[in-house]
Amino acid sequence: MRGEAWDTGARRAAGYAANVEDAVEQESGQGPSAQEVGAWYDRLGGLYSLTMGDNMHMGMWEGGRRPDPGRVLSADEAWQELTAAQDRWTDDLIAELGLAPHQRALDIGCGTGRPTVRLAAASGGHVIGITASRSQAEQATARAEREQPPGKAEFVHGDAMDLPFEDESFDALWAIESFAHFSDRPRALRQAWRVLRPGGRLVLADCLEAVPFTEQEARLFRGGFALAPLPRSLDDYPALVRGAGFAIERVLDRSADFAPTYDLIPLVYAGRREQLARRLGAEAAGQLDTAYPLILDLCRDKLGYVMVSARKTAH
Predict the structure, then answer these.
(1) What is the per-residue pLDDT for 109?
(2) Can you tell me the distance from the alpha carbon of 91 to that of 57, in angstroms, rounded to the nearest whole number?
């Protein structure tokens, strides 16, 4: 029965994600292009904005324990707890990055911009976010115009594997759960190296396949989120970063800390089901009802998470 459920979920995930399954089944086997990822977010970014907190990345709880797990939460309360946990993780990464007020940073895969704006406000530095999605760049720009400090955060549409910036033009950069989308991660890291000044810091935080996916699970997961194949070891991202020429300073395993993210999302989803149907359409929402729980179970049970902090050494 489980195999049949996964088959059904994979078909429905492919249905609601339209052409994503084709994107991740390229001959190279590496995953979707930046243009395909951007198109996916343009079509389905509303799913994230309604169900996954305001940061579009993991929330973190020490030891994976929520403060009051027995309390029944409304959709709005679950959203607030999830967003607060995401903000805590963003703040940890801000401290890791160590951006100074006079410096410039790049947010690679900025989503709708909340961490970017938060970094600018906390550091006083100038932060540019880049995303493959035109709709995300527009939403992030609107966010920056609403929030303080004005002019400290800006957003562009572009490809992280071909960054539209001059050599050595940033003092720091981070990538929060964006490398999972990249079909050519070594190239993206070489681009990060190119635009970072000597001595500048890179902070990369992302998921990995801690427990091996079955073929069905990989198809469902990658189709559901427009992802390239994930690394399968905590050592893989540090090795990639080191291979691009960076000096590793710290590797942090947060695999035990993010599971409540996927306990809270179903509460938000249930409370906002009608909004999802209006935004995505009844047919896509119906497909999602089947696919989404399977994807969330897979995230909770088989994903790991690592943060890598590194510096660009002198040539």
Answers:
(1) 97
(2) 13
Q: What is the DSSP letter of 312?
A: E
Ranges of the chain whose pLDDT falls below 50: 1, 17-28
List Cβ neighbours of 55 (8 Å cut-off, separation of 6 or more).
Answer: 83, 86, 87, 90, 111, 114, 115
- Integer Cα distance of 181 and 198 in angstroms: 27
Pairwise CA distance, residues 141 & 113, whole Å: 8
Residue-level pLDDT at 223: 83
Eight-class DSSP state of 252: E
Q: Could you tell me if 170 and 200 are in contact, meaning their C-beta atoms sit under 8 angstroms apart? A: yes
226 Rama sector, left if φ>0, alpha if ψ -120 to 50, beta otherwise: left
Please say whether the beta carbons of 302 and 209 come within 8 A.
yes
| Segment 130-150, tens digit of pLDDT | 999 999 999 999 999 998 677
Q: Give the span between the Cα atoms of 19 and 223, in whole angstroms.
A: 9
- Residue 152 and residue 120 in contact, taking contact as beta carbons nearer than 8 Å: yes
**Residue that the structure tokens 């396949």 belong to:** 209
Q: Which residues of 24-58 are buried (b: 16+ CB within 10 A; e: fewer)?
A: beeeeeebbbbebbbbbbebbbbbbbbbbbbbbbb
d(CA 206, CA 133): 19
The two most distant CA atoms of the chain are separated, in Å, by 58
Tracing tokens 């809270």 back to the chain, one arrives at 264
SS3 200: strand
Rounded to whole angstroms, how far apart are CA atoms 306 and 208? 8
Taking a C-beta distance cutoff of 8 angstroms, is the pair 73, 81 a contact?
A: yes
- Supply the pLDDT for residue 151: 75
